[in-house]
Design brief:
Layout: H1 17-31, E1 39-43, E2 46-50, E3 56-61, H2 67-82, E4 98-100, E5 103-109, H3 120-132, H4 146-155, H5 162-180, E6 188-191, E7 200-202, E8 208-210, E9 217-220, H6 226-233, H7 240-250, H8 260-276, H9 283-298
Antiparallel strand pairs: 1-2, 2-3, 3-5, 4-5, 6-9, 7-8
Length: 308
């Protein structure tokens, strides 16, 4: 690892397109890669760059405290490659993660030149294969605690009213008690952690692959099925036919499980809080946060929620 000078409020280089240019250049030089002509694809929880000189994606994390998490993601990627499970790969000869300017940087093989998502059915196939694998202890996967993540996110949420924050915290407290009483029925084990259609990309060879390996953990497998279920049942982002194919391919219908509503409410709350983190910097996010809060408070339909 290498480190550079700070500049941001968290002690790292300013998390802006201009501020991160030096981070990208220094990290690529250390990794033996050429950053000239790199394209900034997005600037969110990560700054994501596509290199023009080689088929590599560079991710710079906004959160400076994710080094251990990204070390684990790299281990997971290498293990999945050894298991021949279709997933995003890391370049074989690059030692990573790196810390440059107080920012954690990782390198990933580019899936293809343009983002093309897989299908809900392919997501089911990938999850079924993943859930059959027995993870080695060397991965050092953490036990999944959704409420540790949720309470931390609630504490760090800026730009929302005190009333909205109090409402969300009260809802989280109730769900915490309900979650503790759940009786999970699928085998406990390794999960992806954020399994949804947005994390299945079409590889240039035509194969669907899992991406975003940061959230691998040990948990009830139901967690990997909940997003597809609520995308269909609550938001209408998947059709009935797509959801039925997902159930058929995976072999289990989460909506028939008695704990479905609690898990759905919890995952939905996390989605609302995630948008809430962006209200101070994005007018679009502020509008969506207001829409979602209204639905939570009134119990109205979520069918007008917009995917992010």
């Amino acid at each position: 690892m290498i480190s550079g000078s700070g500049g941001g409020q968290d002690g790292g280089t300013e998390f802006t397109a201009d501020g991160l240019e030096v981070v990208l250049r220094e990290a690529c030089e250390t990794a033996g890669l050429d950053s000239d002509g790199a394209e900034l694809l997005r600037l969110g929880s990560n700054a994501v760059y596509r290199l023009s000189a080689s088929p590599v994606i560079v991710r710079v994390a906004r959160d400076p405290d994710v080094l251990e998490e990204m070390e684990r993601a790299v281990r997971v990627a290498r293990w999945l490659e050894a298991e021949d499970l279709p997933a995003t790969r890391v370049p074989a000869r690059v030692t990573q993660p790196l810390v440059v300017g107080g920012r954690v940087v990782t390198f990933w093989e580019s899936v293809q030149e343009h983002e093309e998502y897989g299908t809900v059915a392919e997501l089911a196939d990938l999850l079924r294969r993943l859930h059959w694998l027995e993870e080695p202890e060397s991965l050092r996967l953490p036990y999944f605690d959704p409420f540790a993540k949720l309470w931390g996110a609630l504490r760090q949420m800026d730009g929302v009213t005190a009333d909205d924050r109090a409402f969300l915290e009260e809802r989280a407290g109730k769900l915490n008690k309900d979650y503790d009483r759940l009786d999970f029925v699928l085998p406990f084990g390794m999960i992806h952690g954020d399994a949804n259609i947005g994390n299945v990309l079409r590889h240039r060879d035509g194969q669907a692959v899992l991406i975003d390996l940061d959230g691998f953990a040990l948990a009830p497998r139901e967690w990997d099925l909940i997003l597809t279920a609520i995308y269909y049942e609550r938001y209408g982002w998947h059709t009935r036919a797509q959801y039925e194919e997902f159930v058929h391919r995976y072999g289990f219908d989460l909506m028939n499980w008695p704990g479905y509503e609690v898990l759905a409410d919890l995952r939905e709350l996390m989605m609302v809080v995630w948008v809430g983190h962006q209200v101070a910097t994005s007018e679009k996010s502020a509008e969506e946060f207001g829409r979602r809060m209204y639905s939570l408070r009134t119990g109205n339909s979520r069918r007008d929620w917009k995917p992010f």
